[in-house]
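Z., the sequence and structure:
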Amino acid sequence: MQEYRFHLQKYVAGKYTKQQCPQCGKYRCFVKYIDEESKIVFPDHVGRCDHEDTCGYHYTPKDFFKDNPDMKPSNLNDAVWNNANFRKPVMPSVKRPEPVTPSYIPDEIMRKSLSHYDINPLSRYLSNTIGKDATAKLFERYKVGTSKKWGGATVYWQVDKDGLVRAGKVMGYNPNDGHRIKEPQPLVSWVHSELKLPDFHLRQCLFGEHLLATSSATVMLVESEKTCLIASHFMPDFLWLATGGKNGCFNAETMQVLRNREVILMPDLGAFDKWRAKAEMLKPICKSVTVSDVLERMVTDEQRKAGLDISDFLLLEPTKQQILQQMIERNPALQLLIDKLQLELVE
């Protein structure tokens, strides 16, 4: 049997040979490619997912060198290249299922929810911190609605780049501190579940994705929708989008909308390494990708343990009808944070 220089890592370490797939996010199903000559260490996204039917992710060394020509070894001439040096392993013939077409929620349902902010706990909290008018503008821009569930829960509508409503995430908040309600159980649901829409195929998109059509600004990608809203208010020169969590909809398919965009990832504290690994997935897609470590370098051990994000610092001392200048007067260190963010994110 012919041995190739670049091949999938052999199953020598048991289950620890397999890692988390960068596309489907499942664990112990992804095998990396290795260099038999130990001269090249491929990034974590160069490999194959075992889930051939449901995921099918396979990014070969040949794909990697095509996207990164400067990394291609000079001794790989065309003869070697064409001699199946990167041959994929032979797999059983399996009929792939047809891709599931996303379901959509009627636009009218979303529009009807864009009101009753007086009973929306998140709207009430933000109105008392950044102001009622500023909150109203953010909710209008990002399509944030109000649900009857839990007495007025917040609805984060996911509208894709074509203006189609993919989903609505329903979340309950405490109006006094703006924190999610997680006890005795997390208050999280989905609009299609609440409406019992039949045969609904959920295919999430980025929160705020619809804004890509009208903005060429550098994209700032964060985890939570609330963080996205607050950061957008204080740093409007960037286009803030959210994945909906550490994993959320952070996969190769969803991220295609960021093709040829300048993107900066802003993970919550404690998630830097994980998002730095995920950034490798974006490199073949985006014009440029950076993972900001500003928060990691500025926080205390207590803040790190709490897993704070950029919005927690921007609202460090919330006061009624608060504006940025008032925050800076009360927290001089906040100006340093913003200056560092602005400086490092544009470099």
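Confidence is low (pLDDT under 50) at residues 79-97, 318-323. Residues 332-346 form the longest helix (15 residues).

Let me know what you think.
H.
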